[in-house]
Amino acid sequence: MPASTAQGSVGTARLVLLHTKFQFLETVRIPIAVIGNLLFPTLAVFFFVVPQPAAQEVPAVATAMVGQLAMFAVMSTFLFSFGIGVAEDRAQPFEPYMRTLPAGAGPRMAGRLINGCIFALMALVPLVLVGWFLTAAEVSMAVLLLAAALILVIGAPFLMLGLAIGYSISAKAALAVVQVVLFPLAFAGGLFMPAELFPDWLDRFSQFLPSRAGRELLIQVLTGSDAYPLALPVLLGWGALFTALAVVAYRRDQGRRFH
Questions:
Q1: What is d(CA 115, CA 142) in angstroms, rounded to the nearest whole number?
Q2: Residue 21: CB partners within 8 Å, gap ≥ 6?
Q3: DSSP 208
Q4: Measured distance CA(82)–CA(17) in Å, rounded
Q5: pLDDT per position in the chain (259 positions), as tens?
Q6: Contacts of 45 by beta carbon, 8 Å cutoff, 6+ apart
Q7: Positive/negative CA dihedral, 42, 44, 47, 53
Q8: How far apart are CA 218 and CA 150, in angstroms?
Q9: How far is Cα of residue 50 from the mean position of the Cα atoms in its chain?
Q10: Under a CB-based contact definition with an 8 Å cutoff, are residues 166 and 247 in contact?
Q11: How far is CA 178 from the centre of its chain?
């Protein structure tokens, strides 16, 4: 590798780390944003999972219940962080300036992606601890680590959906849109109520949703139960669609502001 290329790569990596640090500190300086991210999914486990007799007696059921709320925690973090966060940044004078710099918006975007993953994993910590101490849920450490990595992968479509929202509309509108998108997807995807309890029509419908597909793949890793056959194709299909929407929204925003 030429010396100039190596130096450029090192410089880009430093910029990414700098933006990651800056955005992390910027977020934690508003404690309620972090507390809300950590608290809501954990409270959902505490109030909706812990009291269930099956969650106290059947490890596989308890593990599945905790897993589906972990899926909700990552969905929520990605949609709010990228949907609302990007929309808010676009309203700031600093964001257009960043795009005019030689490094472009890449390092800032990479820092945002890293921070999104950090806060998503942070949201899982208290949730997992409540499930571990107060329910019959049990997994090996190897499975837990695999599930933590997988949940970021299956959460990627929602990250892209968040970016598509954030680059398309204003911050005030983004807040409403994220809420309208998040909660129906969570309910219909079986993240609050186990999909096994759905009526037949809702069960069939939910199998075409990315939230249900992600839930099934995560629970398959956690408990060993088989996901329905279309889970992976459905998740990949939505991921491709949301990625295309995010790219179109970014390019449209770039063209509207700088051309």
A1: 24
A2: 111
A3: T
A4: 18
A5: 455 555 556 667 888 888 888 888 877 777 776 777 778 888 889 888 999 998 899 999 999 999 999 999 999 999 998 898 888 888 877 666 666 666 667 788 888 889 889 999 999 999 999 999 999 999 999 999 999 999 999 999 999 999 999 999 988 899 899 999 999 999 999 999 888 889 999 999 999 999 999 999 999 999 999 999 999 999 999 999 999 999 999 888 876 655 4
A6: 65, 66, 69, 127, 130, 131, 135
A7: negative
A8: 7
A9: 24
A10: no
A11: 12
Q: What are the backbone angles phi and psi of residue 61, rounded to the nearest 5°?
A: -65, -45
DSSP string, 111-157: HHHHHHHHHHHHHHHHHHHHHHHHSS----HHHHHHHHHHHHHHTHH
**Residue of 209, 245, 230, 179 lying closest to 68 (CA atoms):** 209
Which residues lie below 8 Å from residue 133, measured CB to CB, with a gap of 6+? none
Pull the structure tokens for residue 40: 């809501």
In contact, 161 and 79? CB cutoff 8 Å: yes
> How far is the CA of 150 from the CAs of 22, 23, 145, 189, 224, in angstroms?
27, 24, 9, 18, 14
Task: Tell whether pTM > 0.70.
Answer: yes
Contact 174, 87 (CB under 8 A): yes
